[in-house]
Design brief:
globular, 11 helices, 2 domains, DNA polymerase, domain 1, Rossmann fold, alpha/beta, 8 strands, two-stranded antiparallel ribbon, six-stranded parallel β-sheet, about 45% helix
């Protein structure tokens, strides 16, 4: 057995748990970029822009579903998504920030767990943002909207991440997210969940579906480390 193989075995043993992270509202705050891109899309079609609180209440859903819930006809939604993305790609790194303690959360989690991001955001933009913050290097897997047929709350994105991580039954595994859909996806995939209060969900909604609730991602990974 080579020394490299021995090192990898030691590393795998140390990182024996699995943590899946949501992105928006869990690790990053891209609210400004999202709202500006929605406004740009509506302006492109000369339609009144919805209230900001209505848009923010839907963050975490796929973009087409957000537009439909905001009143756009189903057969028109992808046109709005295209207009949104054309603007978003030009501003997303400039107008997105890390949430407080997010970097420390990822660095701490990496010391004892294998990590993945499971998000409804486009995978390309998710990767670009994580690379922008020099954090992609900590993640073994990233599952974005285009990687699955059925987004959260369907468990498919979680199943795909776990399969890529070599998950085996009995491995301590948690999904950390900020919305009820994150928690429901974890429940359907039969893994544990932690809802965080630093994003778009609220305590009452999360309390109904999360196994645990914590202030932010750092508190969540510190809790998992003790389990």
């Amino acid at each position: 057995m080579s020394s490299n193989t021995i090192y990898q075995l030691k590393e795998d043993k140390l990182r024996s748990k699995i943590i899946l992270f949501d992105l928006d509202g869990t690790l990053i705050d891209s609210t400004e970029a999202i709202l500006e891109s929605f406004a740009t899309a509506y302006k492109a079609f000369k339609v009144d822009i919805p209230k900001e609180e209505n848009i923010k209440s839907l963050i975490g859903l796929p973009l087409d579903k957000m537009f439909i819930k905001l009143g756009v006809a189903e057969d028109e939604a992808m046109k709005y998504v295209k207009a949104y993305k054309e603007h978003y790609r030009s501003i997303h790194t400039k107008k997105t920030v890390l949430l407080p303690h997010a970097k420390e959360a990822i660095e701490t989690a990496y010391t004892y767990a294998r990590l993945a991001v499971v998000t409804t955001k486009t995978g390309q933009y998710s990767r670009e943002l994580l690379e922008h913050f020099d954090l992609m290097k900590y993640f073994d897997v990233l599952i974005g909207r285009e990687d699955v047929k059925n987004p959260k709350p369907h468990p498919e994105p979680i199943y795909k991440a776990l399969d890529a991580l070599g998950y085996s039954f009995g491995t301590i595994t948690y999904y950390i997210g900020d919305t009820p859909d994150d928690m429901l996806a974890a429940e359907e995939a039969d893994i544990a969940s932690i809802g965080v209060l630093c994003g778009y969900g609220n305590n009452n909604d999360l309390d109904e579906v999360a196994d645990f609730i914590q202030k932010d991602a750092l508190k969540a990974v510190q809790l998992i480390e003790k389990i």
